[in-house]
Design a protein that fits this description.
By secondary structure, the protein is mainly beta. The chain has a single domain, classed as Immunoglobulin-like (Sandwich), CATH 2.60.40.180. It is built from no helices and 9 strands. It has strands at residues 2-10, 15-16, 21-27, 33-40, 46-51, 61-67, 81-86, 93-100, 105-107. Strands 1, 2, 5, 8 and 9 form a 5-stranded mixed sheet that branches. Strand 1 and strand 2 (15-16) form a beta hairpin.
Length: 111
C-alpha cells in the first residue's frame, strides 16, 4: 500500500495548521481529472492516508489543493496551494510538508 502524508505548519504563529480543507485529484495521461481523495488536516496539521494503487494509478499525476484561504481570516493573497506530484510506487510513502502563511508557502519532498 502507498502511504500519502502531509504536515501543514502555520508560519505566522509557529503552530500546526489544523482543519485545512485538502482535495487530491488524479490526472490521467489523457488529461482527464477526477476526484481521488478529500479531507481536512487534523488538529496537528497532518494528513495520513493509505491508498491501494493499481499499476494504472501509478502512471497518473496527482494534484493536491490545500484551501488555505479559509484558514486565514485576515486579508491574504494566496487562497489555495496547488501541488502536482506522482505516486509511481505502490509500496512507497509519499510525504509533502508545507509551511503556510497568508501570503506565501514553502513545500518540499520528504522521505
Amino acid at each position: 500500500m502507498a502511504i500519502f502524508s502531509s504536515h501543514l505548519l502555520d508560519a505566522t504563529n509557529g503552530s500546526h495548521a489544523g482543519n485545512v480543507e485538502v482535495v487530491i485529484f488524479q490526472i490521467k495521461k489523457n488529461g482527464e481529472k477526477k476526484l481521488f481523495y478529500e479531507t481536512k488536516s487534523d488538529s496537528a496539521g497532518r494528513i495520513n492516508q493509505e491508498f491501494e494503487l493499481s499499476k494504472d494509478d501509478c502512471k497518473c499525476e496527482y494534484e493536491m489543493i490545500c484551501k488555505t484561504g479559509k484558514y486565514f481570516s485576515e486579508k491574504k493573497i494566496i487562497s489555495e496551494i496547488n501541488i502536482k506530484f506522482r505516486m509511481e510506487d505502490q509500496n512507497q510513502k509519499y510525504h509533502i510538508p508545507i509551511i503556510i502563511s497568508k501570503n506565501s508557502y514553502t513545500v518540499w519532498w520528504s522521505k
